[in-house]
Amino acid sequence: MHSPELLKGTLQTILLKVLKDNGKMYGYEITQKVKELSLGRILLTEGALYPALHKLEAEGLLQTETVLMGKRVRKYYTITVTGKSLVKERVVEFREFIKTMSAVLQVQIA
Amino acid sequence: MHSPELLKGTLQTILLKVLKDNGKMYGYEITQKVKELSLGRILLTEGALYPALHKLEAEGLLQTETVLMGKRVRKYYTITVTGKSLVKERVVEFREFIKTMSAVLQVQIA
DNA sequence: CTTACATGCATAATTCACTTATGTATTGAT
DNA sequence: ATCAATACATAAGTGAATTATGCATGTAAG
């Protein structure tokens, strides 16, 4: 796991992007997908994940659908049109941030 | 200015790296240097800067020297040996963070 | 067969880096 | 003279995270 400080401010972008790329997903599934993509380096905690998802839903960036799988509840999230346009901005913003930081730290990225 | 959320967790690394690269510097000078290197995109606020410098000093990563310039006080900061070894780690950590994030966000960096 | 781990959701208390606001004082430009 | 820049510092407040807790089901190992 990375220094968790660096992750701050990236959670929303991660959630939106993963949902944009993978369509309908539920919370736990997202944590597993992020774990896989990050090669085990980003482990989303529930205390961060669920409040973040709820917030994104409240802002109209995500839509939900609750499904009963046997006796277990699953809450599926889908990205909205507004969410899709926001995630583009966020990713651009992140790339610009990287460029700026690499200039300040005088390091070669990639 | 970037979305300030992304900057969280990067301040210490920025301060240590700039001081490692530029030798003895005082607070205000650091803000100007960072502004220059970031093309005006990172504007360090005093409320973040000074407490961060004090903390790094308390941790033995920076050393200080107070100089009277005419009637104006300047507090010069120099990075210590411990600080130098830490900044290397921090920069490596940051690069790894970028790699991980680019994998999760599926974006090409640089 | 029970114990532990994984799955699945959720919220409350706390932490901590940062922003915003405030304070003090000097220097230089219009 | 007055404003902006220079130069330091601390206090109050914010907000996104961590940590802790709670509930419940499925499944593999011993």
Helix and strand run of chain A:
HHEHHEEH
Reading side by side through the largest sheet of chain A, how are the strands ordered? 1-3-2
- Quickly give the structural class of chain A: alpha+beta
Can you count the beta strands of chain A?
3
Chain-averaged pLDDT of chain A: 92
Helix content of chain A: 55-70%
Multimerization state: homodimer
Strand content of chain A: 15-25%
- The gross shape of chain A turns out to be globular
Tally of DSSP helical segments of chain A: 5
Q: Poorly predicted ranges of chain A (pLDDT <50, ≥5 residues)?
A: none
Structural Rg of chain A? 15 Å
Largest interface: chains, residues each: A-B, 39 and 39 residues
Spatial separation of the terminal alpha carbons of chain A: 20 Å
Largest sheet of chain A: 3 strands, antiparallel
General description of the model:
The structure is a homodimer of 110-residue chains. Chain A is of the alpha+beta class and 110 residues long. The first copy, chain A, is 59% helix and 16% strand. Chain A contains 5 helices and 3 strands. Chain A has helices at 4-7, 11-22, 27-37, 46-58, 81-105; strands at 25-26, 62-69, 72-79. A 3-stranded antiparallel sheet of chain A has the order 1-3-2. The longest helix of chain A has 25 residues, at 81-105. The radius of gyration of chain A is 15 Å and the shape is globular. Chain A starts with a helix and ends in a 5-residue tail after the last helix. The first copy, chain A, binds a DNA duplex (30 and 30 nucleotides) through helix 1, helix 4 and strand 3.
